Amino acid sequence: MQDFWWRTTWPLLPAILFCLVLWPVAGSGTALLVFCLSLCALLALHLFNLRKLAGWLKKPDLHAIPEGNGIWDDIFANLYQELRRHSRSETRLISALERLQQAAGALPDGVVVLNETDQIEWCNPSAGRQLGLRLDQDAGKPISYLVRQTEFIAYLNARNYTEPLLLKSARNPDVSLELQLVPFGENQKLLICRDITHLEKIETMRRDFIANVSHELRTPLTVVGGFLETLKDIEGAVPDNLRHYFDLMEDQTGRMRNLVEDLLMLSQLESSQNPPQESIVDVPALLDTVQTEAQNLSAGRHHVLIEHADPTLNLRGSQDELHSAFGNLVNNAIRYTPEGGEIRICWQLRGKEAVFSVRDTGIGIEQHHIARLTERFYRVDRSRSRETGGTGLGLSIVKHILTRHQARLEIQSEFGKGSTFSAIFPPEHVALKSAEKNKQGALTS
Ligand code: ADP
Asked: Is the C-beta atom of 394 inside 6 A of ligand 1?
């Protein structure tokens, strides 16, 4: 700071000395006048430099920085240094941004940056190819104007982006896309788009393979099973000492047949793109059938009762699929409940949702297994599952059926005490009997 005062005032020193000499010779008035003139000259010098600075600031250019004298020389030199530093960091930032854009551009997945009102800010060439976007034309336009499939609009507006959306490309229906929105920054979103046509083909091949193998196994197994049964029925055809082996063979053939049937059912559910045929399913009547089947399976070893079945509550869906799902849950309850246990079936409204639940007093399940129970072939106790004729596919089938009905499976269990499996159906699938009657009445009148 001291340096500043010295550097700004030293040009006045010669003028002050000159005035001091002039004072006794030409009088105080002349000396004062000369001093004032010197001050004006200094002011003019500063104004001149200030004008240069103002002119330069209008069009700042690193290579045309003005030259000054005195303190102005320092000011312009510091300005030059600062500007160079700034320009260097700007170059660094620009090249980092370019590298980032190049990397995003080279990604095989499409990336679109959306602002808070879902307008396109930027997209990479892959997004252009997959979604038909052109950055030069489409920047600033709402994404919903350009990707117009109703599923995508619903996904965008739902504001729940935990799951990706599977979509057929609007430009080529043979191409399958997986779209995922990822929120970031301040209400901005990243739309990531992946071509999964190849993965889908592999998945279809896998499904077809399982379906074909199961189908091919079905006939020989039926023939072998049939012959075993016939042989056992023919008097004297099976010696008594071999009868035990025949029983074992029959058991194993039965198990394989169950497995093949479950695999076929699963691949049928998986490959069917269409929603289940929608009919009104009389659930209370279905529960009676399920109860009878369960009592047959239990053979009097358990107490199977319908605790509550709302007689007015029906479902829209597939009778066969719902029969299979409810049957599977009740059969499991019997198979995993020791003799003398109790199985309670309940069917009622909970809020606007319809809930089918099976509560048993069986062996229960430890908490860490629960999340994995619907995986194929996941079994807590493999030998118990086998002993009771399980295939390890039952809950997987249940989950598929429920998903096709937009329903979900809830499992509550206490190890050693019992479990409750609940299938929860959304209001869209609920059909109340009185409402149906009213509708029919309105149609006939
Ligand atoms: P599985 O044919 O082996 O029964 P599931 O897919 O039906 O196959 O069931 C998967 C596993 O979940 C079973 O092996 C069993 O360990 C467990 N499980 C299912 N239902 C019950 C239940 N009600 N009580 C206890 N464990 C159960």
From this structure: yes
The strand order across the sheet containing 342-350 reads: 303-309, 342-350, 353-360, 418-425, 408-414
- Cβ–Cβ under 8 Å, residues 283 and 315: yes
Mean pLDDT over residues 42-55, rounded? 90
Give 119's Cβ-side CA count (13 Å radius). 7
- List the CATH number of the domain containing 225: 1.10.287
Has residue 425 been placed in a domain?
yes
Across 128-137, 253-262, 319-328, which has the greatest mean pLDDT?
319-328
Q: Are residues 143 and 261 in the same domain?
A: no
How far apart are the CA of 281 and the centre of ligand 1, in A?
Answer: 26
Structure tokens at 261: 């049937």
Ligand 1: does its nearest atom lie under 6 Å from the Cβ of 362? yes
For 76-90, the pLDDT digits (tens) are 888 889 989 999 999
CB of 373 shorter than 6 A to ligand 1? yes
**Do both 285 and 385 map to the same domain?**
yes
283 and 408 fall within a common domain = yes
> Which residue lies with its CA nearest to atom 16 of ligand 1?
380
Domain count, the chain: 4
- pTM, full prediction: 0.69
Q: Is 100 domain-assigned?
A: no
192-239 tens-digit pLDDT: 999 999 999 998 898 899 999 999 999 999 999 999 989 888 888 888
How far, CA to CA in Å, does 181 sit from each of 17, 141, 365?
A: 78, 17, 36
| Domain interval for residue 155 | 107-195
Residue nearest to atom 7 of ligand 1 (CA): 394
Name 217's Cβ contacts closer than 8 Å, sequence gap at least 6. Answer: 256, 260
Question: Does residue 391 line the site of ligand 1, with CB under 6 A?
Answer: yes
